[in-house]
Amino acid sequence: MPGRNKGLTYADAGVDIEAGNQAVRLIRDAVRSTFRPEVLADIGGFGGLFALDPARYKEPVLVSGADGVGTKLRVAMLMDRHDTVGIDAVAMCVNDILVHGAEPLFFLDYLAVGRMVPEKVAAIVSGVAEGCRRAGCALIGGETAEMPGFYGPEEYDLAGFAVGVVERGRIIDGRSIVPGDRVIGLPSSGLHSNGYSLARKVLLEMAGYGVDTYVERLGRTIGEELLEPTRIYVKAVLPLLNHFTVKGLAHITGGGLTENIPRILPPGTAVNIFLGKWPVPPVFELIGEAGGVSEAEMLRTFNMGIGLAMVVPAGQAEAVMAYLAAAGEKSYLIGEVAEGESGVNYMRGKGGK
After folding, report:
1. d(Cα 250, Cα 344) in Å, to the nearest integer?
2. Which residues form the PurM-like N-terminal domain (predicted)?
3. Tens-place pLDDT, residues 101-135
4. What's the DSSP call for residue 315?
């Protein structure tokens, strides 16, 4: 009909298919850089294909984990820096499956954006690829969804899914933990990806810092500190499992030491944690002071400088720490298992036995 308006397109509704295609082109090399020999298909298919080598295992058990970056993403948006949060997405998932003794095999990411900007998507996925390289797993697929009207034009969310494998007879589940076992802590790089709602409330609202505020005790800006990527512990821990008896591993995420260590303890056991046995990064002191946050609340919200805790027999603790040191990994004897009911008891001026 003459004069009739042109019909709407998907782009008119805010979804740019061509921009999505361009994003795929931009991320292709980064994704391919993560591929292991078991990967059977390039990106762009409907599903990722991974051929598990049956000759390597007697009774393989697949271990899976899913997680997101959380409100740390808000800091990335404020700084307009997006190339590191992908590392966090990978770390949160692979560290979770590592604690069962699993080798991460492959990863898939889910990215939802308010507006498809190919270069921004490429930066985010480059971080995911970097995380996969650090973990030794393949990025074999994912989803990038443009969701106008649901997210703001500059907003996005990022989550991921990891699958790993462990021999059935080598699953780490904490069942063999007994009183007298020692707890060794591996240091975190900072906040990792947990507690950001409280951290942002204290630092960006109560204290009035901006992401570009330089803080002397941190040696960098608030934004740089908050965007420090989560450590990935795979390459430090997996080789160790071939030489020592590791009875339990805990990824210290939301809930801190207080909530996460009890998740691996069998009935009738508790853990005594010796405060002062490891250096606490200054960002935690800053949050506690600026927000008037109690020590107990800090310990049940943040990792407080310990990103991974492992439980080993008392007779192996010193050798485990020496092995880690030889590999360039710092570690601290932070506690011991005691009789009790699956709790964490904090003590000062003890430990090191």
Report:
1. 13
2. 61-166
3. 999 999 999 999 999 999 999 999 999 999 999 99
4. G
